[in-house]
Amino acid sequence: MRHFDHRDGELHAEDVPLSRIAAEVGTPVYVYSSATLERHYRVFADSFGGLDTLVAYSVKANSNIAVLQTLARLGAGADVVSGGELARALIAGIPGERIVFSGVGKTRDEMSAALEADIHVFNVESLPELRVLDDVAQSMGRRAPVAFRVNPDVSAGGHEKISTGKKENKFGIAWDRAESAYAEAACLPGIEVVGVDVHIGSQIDDLAPFEAAIRKVRGLIERLRTQGHDIRLFDIGGGLGIHYGDDNRMPPPPSDYGQLVRRLTADLGVQMVFEPGRMIAGNSGVLLTEVLYVKGGGDREFLIVDAAMNDLLRPALYDAWHAVEPVRLPEPDQASATYDIVGPICESGDTFAKDRMMPAVRAGDLVVFHSAGAYGAAQSSQYNTRPLVPEVMVRGGQYRLIRKRPSVEEMLERERLVDWSN
Ligand code: LLP
């Protein structure tokens, strides 16, 4: 069932008309459906029936603490990549034992905060990082649970900026160095080797690269065990794609992914860890915006909306395609138009869509960008001194503001005029 649907001629989030949110909170604003978030988590988590699993939601996709709290209540863990994300996960009620810490550049402070929180595992990406972690853990009288992120040299992912599993990428330990890395780790008193980690990319719409990566890691786990390592965890990362509504290939349903993982790992005797981000949050949110101007005259018509690339960066950064839809259902005789949909920022890159056919709209009309729940608000900024875009969560007929729009004073309060007079 869809939780963003037209009712009485108007797009709703669950039972709340989007025009009500626009009137009360203002635009632009992200609107999330808690029912969709919950459904996506459950569909994913339930697809591994019988396996020992930890679903560690990838916080970077949508890090709002209310989103994390909603998932925490269903038993979700968290995949974090910074001390800030770790703090968010803990505040939202995700216990340390369900948190995995990924990322190529963890600092000593971040490592000690994570050790303090007794996290489940550190996904370590290099030997220099391992040695620092060993040092930090020893100085705290602890042992850090470690899985090496290995780079399986598998090609996957929708866009070169989000493909991570090839050997030319900066991520992970090179495949042919993995075994010697484990040998070194086994000698470090502050380190406890527990598993193997991979993450091959994002917006992957095909099961083949997952299968290739799992098969390679299986072989590695078997070799590591014969070398005496007690490998009890296999983190396969995130990356399962979602349907953005365009003509591109449809990603496989989570049930097919679950079946693949079960078939390839059921006899391996490991806990399987997953780090889904986009799959959980992507289609749980829309960016709601108002048409400011319809500017014609030249050889094309521009729809100038009050959202901009600082609010939703994906089209500018990855040429990403988001479905656009007016909040008011068009009248049966309403004309269509072809627009370039742009924001107010002073860059040509501030373009959400080119040559987009849609029902003709006017200044003051509301439109949404669909599939904006992942890597939308989380990648927003205050560029052009535009206030950080607010976020709203809907549950049934109610909604709550979960990130408020800052005033100009609040935006400036961390800055200082310089005074060189003394
Ligand atoms: N685990 C690790 C180690 C990751 O680097 C990522 C995403 C994930 C899990 C979650 O991947 P997902 O399930 O969401 O595909 N901003 C880009 C996507 C960047 C992905 C970065 N890493 C976008 O908007 O498409």
Question: Main traits of this protein?
Answer:
nine-stranded mixed β-sheet, 422 residues, alpha/beta, eight-stranded parallel β-barrel, 12 helices, 2 domains, Lyase, Ornithine Decarboxylase, Chain A, domain 1, binds ligand LLP, single chain, TIM Barrel
Task: Bin the strand percentage.
Answer: 25-35%
The global form is globular
Name of the level-1 CATH class of the largest domain: Alpha Beta
Please report the number of helical segments. Answer: 12
- Strand tally is 21
Mean pLDDT: 95
Largest sheet: 9 strands, mixed
- CATH level-two architecture of the largest domain: Alpha-Beta Barrel
CATH topology of the largest domain: TIM Barrel
CATH homologous superfamily descriptor of the largest domain: Alanine racemase
Question: What structural class do the secondary elements suggest?
Answer: alpha/beta
